[in-house]
């Protein structure tokens, strides 16, 4: 078997618009599956990376780590998948597999670092290219099954947005009797609302304005407050067991920590590019936790997909053609999407 060229949308250089091209995919190895990509979600971090927001990128860059498709070929030693299976790939395509975190199913915190689905060099020294493409070859151990109950288009964003919210909600035990606030109602936040509600928690959305209030309540929130209204912080002081911040704009952390109950946690899954300042009395009083969380492990991603299928939770999406991707990026930056763009890979 030889390396094949596959159709893709790539940024040829930093900050350049994406354009149609071809990229190489490795031969299907013993433990690999070849996936015929059907849909790829557009994550905010795709835009950060093609625009060098997170440091120097590798070009041409094919973004996309919210991949849903169908297995087209399997390597001779693949045991978990067969041709025709509906599968997904998220942000991780390899890790060391031997460190304590990999062995515990927390591959996202691998001590050697993850091999990213794109904008990375894999452990064999080859460049990785993401999901804005017709096909991808991935080790079966970093591939997950998409249950029949989930349509592939609304499942794609779960591979990053879904797991990014599911993992901290589970870790901090969101469930019946717990009050959870989600800061920001975008691609990440709307999945946080859906999943927290399905877990049985009482959910509040904290958004800059009340513009998306009706959506928020429909998605599963019981309450919706505008953070631009100063009285919100007085009214809700000491209310929440868990606050998940999905925004990358700088937050007044002290103000949000003030909304937690004793032993509550403020968990960041979005991060501003600049360092933040904090008066530590805002965590000392009330024994509070300021934390972060990054995507989730492979087994946990499977658990999340099974949970979403069981509860009928997909992402709210706007399906686009591949040649609309540059326009979609501008709309994501303007927060003009409800709630995730998904590329129909048949148009690549
Ligand atoms: Zn992402
Ligand atoms: Zn590891």
UniProtKB/TrEMBL annotation:
SMART domains: PKS_ER. Its EC number is 1.1.1.2. It is an enzyme of class 1 (oxidoreductase). The keyword Thylakoid does not apply. It holds the Pfam family ADH_N. It catalyses: a primary alcohol + NADP(+) = an aldehyde + NADPH + H(+). The keyword Metal-binding applies. Belongs to the zinc-containing alcohol dehydrogenase family. This is alcohol dehydrogenase (NADP(+)). The lineage of its organism: Bacteria, Bacillati, Actinomycetota, Actinomycetes, Kitasatosporales.
